[in-house]
Design goal:
CATH class of the largest domain: Mainly Beta
CATH superfamily of the largest domain: Jelly Rolls
Strand order of the largest sheet: 2-3-4-11-6-9-12
Number of helices: 0
Order of helices and strands: EEEEEEEEEEEEEEEEEEEEEE
Distance between the termini: 26 Å
Strand content: over 45%
Radius of gyration: 17 Å
Largest sheet: 7 strands, antiparallel
């Protein structure tokens, strides 16, 4: 089990974006300077907790051979470019941009007067199932419950937004990446226990028959990347 905590990461970025990079897969990004970031899990190769200053933007740039999931936690984000031009994401919404064979270009803009906050996750697509053209899909999620945002068609790995109530337990029987947005988690894996509070990442890679359990003392929000057929969420009261 590996943990990456907020205070251990430098704030980096480009143009108007500032971010902490929690996942940067070493095979996908050779020579990366983000030494404290964790490796990815399967096709999920990048995860950053980001914000754009009021009136700022990423600038127009291109992507290919990657799907990008943007999860809005605060404020708004406007899209310009070849996908979703003119659409605006607000708190509680997510957007998946599928690169297809054509790829896409975009500029993400914070046109409001307040700082925003969003999680951005990069996923290597299933090359056998790529469409010729790029596309996008918007999803609304419930911050107090579980919403499936993305399933990788080749590996059937899932990306879920999860809202946990106090004393609930989350159990994974297989490898998982869990990003705690806010709250707290007591993480147990075999004989290893660690408390994660505030914001941080847990990368669980199983050994033998160990399972990973996470119990929250207070209401918590997190993002889970996993391959479970279903989530195991239990009340511990």
């Amino acid at each position: 089990m590996q943990t990456v905590l907020e205070h251990t990461l430098d704030i980096t970025g480009f143009a108007g974006v500032r971010e902490r990079v929690y996942v940067m897969d070493s095979q996908q990004f050779s020579g990366s300077s983000h030494e404290e970031a964790a490796d990815g899990l399967g096709p999920f190769v990048y995860l950053a907790d980001a914000h754009i200053r009021p009136g700022g933007s990423t600038g127009m740039h291109a992507h290919s051979n990657i799907d990008i999931v943007t999860i809005m936690l605060r404020g708004e984000l406007s899209h310009q470019g070849s996908l979703g031009h003119g659409t605006v994401l607000h708190q509680g919404s997510a957007q998946i941009q599928f690169s297809g064979r054509a790829g896409f270009s975009h500029n993400e803009v914070n046109a409001s007067g307040s700082f925003n906050r969003f999680i951005q996750i990069w996923v290597k697509p299933d090359t056998a199932a790529l469409n010729d053209e790029a596309k996008y899909h918007d999803i609304h999620f419930d911050a107090d419950n579980t919403t499936r945002l993305y399933t990788h068609p080749a590996t059937e790995a899932h990306l879920d937004f999860i809202g946990l109530k106090p004393k609930q337990k989350l159990v994974f029987e297989n490898d998982a990446l869990v990003f705690l947005i806010e709250g707290d988690l007591l993480v147990s894996e075999g004989e290893h226990n660690e408390q994660v509070t505030g914001t941080g990442l847990v990368r669980s890679i199983k050994e033998k028959h160990a399972i990973t359990s996470m119990v929250c003392e207070k209401a918590s929000q997190l993002i889970a990347i996993h391959s479970e057929a279903k989530l195991f969420i239990h009340d511990t009261k």
